[in-house]
Amino acid sequence: MARDNRSLQPSRLRHATNVVTFFDNHSWLLAQRHETCSTVPWQRSCVIARQKYRFYTERIPVLKHKLWHVIPATNDWRTAVTLVQRVYPGTESWLLYISHREGGYGAFVMNHQGSGAGGWMQFMASTYYAYSDAAFAHARSRGFDVPREANTWYSPLGQAITAGYMRYTGRDGCHWCL
């Protein structure tokens, strides 16, 4: 899906919902008691109304699905964790707990005291990259559109997806022993 289409999805859903609501409130236009529009004097309006109503009624679930399954790029850790809940439900409190313990919710934190770990989850770069491709592929296999540019050690969304995947699939092992 193109980047500009992502930003249009909420307005398209709102428009579709408004059209359906309008016809629900003005159901006489649809001439619901008549099998065809040919029996009503507003035949042309009835045909157009039925076409629009059917089109937008079918479009609403598609737009809702797209809105839920498109994970937008973000540079905010808490937002990234919240978005990752769509893909890996039940990992939010764990992700926030570990990141709080490891360095906080703010900017990328580098451990300069020997380990070389960095980020919100204090991943070693080698550990992150060992799991990140599988995490992003797994998210895509579950029907989610995740931004490819987020698959980097320096991205809060990348770290959230990778750590969420590791926790959700039981691959967290003792990387973050409690």
Provide structural commentary:
This protein has 178 residues and is an all-alpha fold. The protein folds into two domains: 3-69; 77-168, no CATH class. 57% of the residues lie in helices and 0% in strands. The chain is built from six helices and no strands. The protein has helices at 3-25, 43-69, 77-87, 92-102, 125-141, 156-168. The mean pLDDT is 90.
SS summary, helix count? 6
Q: Which outline best applies? A: rod-shaped
Strand count, sense and closure of the main sheet? none
How much beta, percentage-wise?
under 5%
Please, what is the average pLDDT? 90
| H/E topology pattern | HHHHHH
Q: State the low-pLDDT regions, or none.
A: none
Tally of separate domains: 2
Radius of gyration: 23 Å
Number of distinct beta strands: 0
Portion in helices: 55-70%
Q: What structural category arises from helix and sheet content?
A: mainly alpha
Head-to-tail CA distance between termini: 39 Å
Quick tags:
single chain; mainly alpha; 2 domains; 6 helices; 0% strand
Write the layout of secondary structure elements.
Elements lengths: L2 H23 L17 H27 L7 H11 L4 H11 L22 H17 L14 H13 L10
Helix pairs in contact: 1-2, 3-6, 5-6
A few lines on this structure:
With 178 residues, this protein is mostly helical. The protein has helices at 3-25, 43-69, 77-87, 92-102, 125-141, 156-168.
